[in-house]
Amino acid sequence: MENTENAILSSDEVESLLESFHESQGITAQPDIIEEADSKIKYYDFKRPNTISREKKRMLYKVFETTAYQISREISNFLRGTAKISLNSIDELSFEIFKNTCPELMFINTIRLKPLKGFGCIAMDMGLCLSIVEKAFGGEGRTQNEIRKLTDTETSIVGIVVKQILDKISSAWKPYDEMEWNISDTAMEPRYLNIASEADVVLLVSFTFNLESSFGEMKFCVPVSSVDKTFDHFFSNKQSNSIETDNESADALKKLSGGIKLSVAGVLDETDFTVNDIVNLKAGDVLRLDSKITNNLKVVVEGKNKYYGKLGLFGSKKAIQIVGLSGDDLV
């Protein structure tokens, strides 16, 4: 039989145990990470890491919103009906979470991101794919109640749509980097998708498809490590493209307005007179102006003083020689 005296705690041991218990409770009640104003410690979510800056994300939104509009036109022409594709969201998350959030069946196309390293994918809801097939065969393209794998013929039809989508996405990136993306593999079960390790961070761009009688979702997924360097080109090309656009706009404006005729007048000077003075004017009267005889004339274009000039002759006709702009102190 065990010695019960050794199992009984003394009063000091009980107090020590209670103090350690309260201390452990206080530690667990604290937040995982404390961020202070002057602290260098920052919160980092391993499930949803933010590795892309806000400025780059805003640029991505502009690129993919334009892409969604172009895809809408392309799919509408292919299906001979109305198809509206809109950008839903742009997220960063681990590849493991992306796979876990996918349904059991999806039409997945693995993309070779040439000349970039690695692979990406375009994943479409299987119900959306079946609606596209029905619409392509002349049906209404209604929402499908039964979700199943695609046949070879259906895979070929939806593959044409995915190819058009990929062309528009890669074309949207061409101003920033030359892309030769192509489809390398096709699958229908996300569990077999292997474009990155589970811990890798991926860029997930979600689009919403609205057909006339159905809707669904398409996802474009690429590892951030594969396209990260391309993001830097967004801003270097953005500045040069804006300068080129301004120059092109200026040249176009010159060509458009070059032949327009404007009214140009040389003005000696201006002064104020009363109504009685004007009424009583007759031949031989002299109007005294405010400016001196040596002052330059004002050259007025469409009623606005633009230049200063000197009166003279050019051949047998009067002429004005421009000596400066109206903002110059040349009066």
Please list the strands of the largest sheet in the order they lie side by side: 1-5-6-3-2-4
Average predicted confidence as pLDDT:
79
How many helices? 7
CATH A-level architecture of the largest domain: 3-Layer(aba) Sandwich
Output the radius of gyration.
Answer: 37 Å
In the CATH hierarchy, what is the superfamily of the largest domain?
A: CheC-like
Backbone shape: elongated
Q: How many extended strands? A: 10
Poorly predicted regions are 25-37
CATH topology of the largest domain: Chemotaxis protein chec
What is the H/E order?
HHEHEEHHEEEHEHEEE
End-to-end gap: 120 Å
The proportion of residues in beta strands is 15-25%
Secondary-structure blueprint of this entry?
Elements: H1 11-29, H2 54-79, E1 84-94, H3 95-101, E2 106-112, E3 119-125, H4 126-136, H5 152-173, E4 182-187, E5 201-210, E6 215-223, H6 224-257, E7 264-267, H7 275-279, E8 297-301, E9 304-314, E10 317-325
Antiparallel strand pairs: 1-5, 2-3, 2-4, 3-6, 5-6, 7-8, 8-9, 9-10
What would a concise description of this structure say?
The chain is α+β, with helices and mostly antiparallel strands and 331 residues long.
